[in-house]
Automatic annotation (TrEMBL):
It is a multi-pass membrane protein. Pfam families: Keratin_assoc. It is found in: Membrane. Keywords: Membrane, Transmembrane, Transmembrane helix. This is Dolichyl-diphosphooligosaccharide--protein glycosyltransferase subunit KCP2. It comes from Parnassius mnemosyne. InterPro entries: KRTCAP2. The keyword Transmembrane applies. One of its GO terms (cellular component) is membrane. It comes from the Eukaryota. The keyword Cytoplasm does not apply. The chain crosses the membrane at residues 6-23, 35-55, 75-106.
Length: 131
């Protein structure tokens, strides 16, 4: 069941804070092996997704449902998640960047599929003129 923008803002903000604090608390575990370092980058990309969701829902609540995220909000969200991942390990920074780019691609693809109205194709017009 879908929730409204204000509730979604609160939930995604809480999840962002939980992921950030979890990454900081379990930093010694996340840097033990290469797999866990990559997992730390994945957690950073999840944090990016929740930050983008929080910012988008905050703007939808403040400015109306038709307001869309622009590039500065995406870059700011990316910077915050990359800094958080970089605080764990520098390879987490790199994997977070890769996973976040993949995440934003699929978020955009899903958004286009969900919210863009299909425009019917114009029927070809036949002229009565003979050549």
């Amino acid at each position: 069941m879908a929730v409204n923008s204000a509730t979604s803002f609160v939930l995604s903000s809480i999840l962002t804070l939980l992921i950030f604090s979890g990454m900081q608390m379990y930093k010694p575990i996340l840097i033990k092996s290469p797999i866990t370092i990559i997992f730390g980058g994945y957690l950073g990309s999840l944090m990016f997704m929740f930050i983008v969701t929080a910012v988008g829902n905050l703007e939808a609540t403040l400015f109306g449902k038709n307001f869309q995220l622009k590039l500065p909000e995406i870059i700011l969200s990316m910077a915050i998640s990359l800094i958080a991942a970089g605080m764990v390990h520098r390879i987490c920074f790199t994997t977070c960047l890769i996973f976040s780019l993949i995440t934003i691609y699929y978020m955009n693809k899903l958004s286009q599929k969900t919210y863009v109205a299909a425009v019917p194709a114009a029927a070809p017009v036949k002229s009565r003129r003979h050549k």
